[in-house]
Specification:
- 2 copies of one chain form a homodimer.
- The first copy, chain A, has 274 residues and is α/β, with parallel strands linked by helices.
- In chain A, 46% of the residues lie in helices and 16% in strands.
- Chain A has a single domain, classed as Aldolase class I (TIM Barrel, Alpha-Beta Barrel).
- Chain A has 11 helices and 10 strands.
- In chain A, strands 1-2-3-4-5-8-9-10 form an 8-stranded parallel barrel, surrounded by 5 helices.
- In chain A, helix 2 runs parallel beside helix 4, helix 5 (99-112) packs parallel to helix 6 and helix 9 (217-224) packs across helix 11 (246-273).
- At the A-B interface, helix 3, helix 4, helix 5, strand 6 and helix 7 of A face helix 3, helix 4, helix 5, strand 6 and helix 7 of B.
């Protein structure tokens, strides 16, 4: 099955547009799991077991594993392999390189690690993306507008009357299809999601920045108009509780977000079909 | 010792601005080393032993190791640890993320792996770079103008009369010093090195694209005007020969490049002091 279809199926079957970000940091997990790096794996397994019927995806942020060197990557790969195969997986690696080298990164993420999708940085141009698109059963999410304070440094610079991030979206859409290509758009810029939807009406959007980063799900989902979207929440779910009940409470928090997103989308449909 | 000083010392002591890129791919090393992944490590050790007195740096491209998962990263780390400590090391990882996550990448490359420097992608803004700059004895090389065909997609878009890559250089120079910050500028754009030197007169430039990618060392070094620079050659040195003599012939090829670069710089000085 193509990754795109897998994503549509799981969003429908689990009635959820929520992705949980496994940004797992040894210093932030419950204290009784901090003895060694395997605590990270145990923590991830518990979160996955407690939530896999109410999410559509897990997003694994590579940085948090790379900080422990190859031992961290081994845990990343074990975690990936623990995720049930019907759940969509996102390698949040934000890779960017050219030709030959980009091909090796694509082999790493799609062949060796068998993720369904990856996040990529567009600065180097389409050469970064093309080797990943050769895996035409997979998906790539290209950074368009990120959720950090300095996203304005370059992404919003105006070129021929429009910001760089819209140029990025147009250029990437020239070389791919809605089934293989999505965009990362931070929830801290909900007004810009209107603009994104003008140039990318049907691509999946991957939206971080809800929860700890303070983005508004109402504004994001209003602007998105019920189109294809994945909303990722990391810290506000996985670190919601630090006791032995952390997984159960993470599930409750994930349910809260899933239901919140669904009710906003439901109201949008209702209000727009009156 | 600060990484910047280490780089100046080794360039002076080894009389070399050459960096060798360890873009080691199991399918491209001599056949007798291809039995398993350890062949990559053996290959790297032989190259390092044969060349460490005639280079200033080794650049390790992470993609070629990541394609083998955690086992590849283990070999990357062993290779890094095999490089003599007085030689400058470049983690060519082109990382890009924000705040928290960027901090974890910085911990990975500077603390866990102990590289002297790293390549970073600027699209996300200064937030990507700042956590790396907190390690103020290290160096970062920010991608400005890359050596690939599609580098024009975004890097050369004109904003207020100047290309994006010059905006990137100006912005990055606002937040750092010449001792901590260098730029990656592809050798396939030698005319642009004049423009780069107008806005970044003293930063180190890391120049890939010589050798297999066809950039001209003469044009690059003329434009650079004998300022701080590292020129990287990968495939045309490490894969120059595929027999049991590969390391000896890689050394000869590295000597050729070192001497070529030095003679161009020598002629530049001579011609400009007449």
């Amino acid at each position: 099955m193509k990754a795109f279809e897998k994503l549509e199926h799981i969003q429908s079957n689990n009635n959820s547009i929520l992705s949980i970000g496994l940004d797992t940091d040894l210093m932030k997990i419950p204290e009784f799991l901090r003895d060694d790096l395997n605590g990270i794996y145990s923590f991830n397994c518990s979160i996955i077991e407690a939530t896999s019927d109410i999410v559509s995806a897990y997003k694994i942020n590579f940085a948090f594993y790379e900080q422990y060197g190859w031992r961290g990557i081994e845990i990343l790969q074990k975690t990936k392999n623990y995720i049930p195969s019907h759940i969509f997986t996102i390698a949040d690696a934000k890779r960017s390189d050219i030709g030959n080298t980009s091909r090796a990164y694509a082999a790493s993420i799609f062949k060796e690690m068998e993720f369904d999708s990856v996040t990529l940085c567009p600065y180097i141009g389409v050469d970064t993306i093309l080797p990943f698109l050769e895996f035409n059963d997979k998906m790539v999410f290209v950074l368009a507008l990120t959720s950090n304070p300095s996203s304005n440094d370059f992404q919003n610079l105006i070129i021929d009357g429009e910001p760089l991030y819209l140029k990025v979206i147009r250029k990437m859409n020239e070389i791919s299809t809605d089934e293989n290509l999505g965009f990362v758009v931070g929830a801290t810029h909900p007004n810009d999601i209107y603009k994104v939807r003008e140039v990318a009406p049907f691509n999946y959007l991957l939206v971080p920045g809800i929860g700890a980063q303070g983005g508004s799900p109402e504004k994001v989902l209003q602007a998105n108009k019920n189109r294809n979207i994945i909303i990722n929440v990391s810290r506000d779910i996985i670190y919601y509780d630090k006791t032995e009940n952390f997984a159960e409470l993470a599930r409750q928090r994930a349910e809260y977000y899933r239901d919140l997103f669904n009710s906003i989308n439901f109201n949008f449909i209702k209000n727009n079909s009156l």
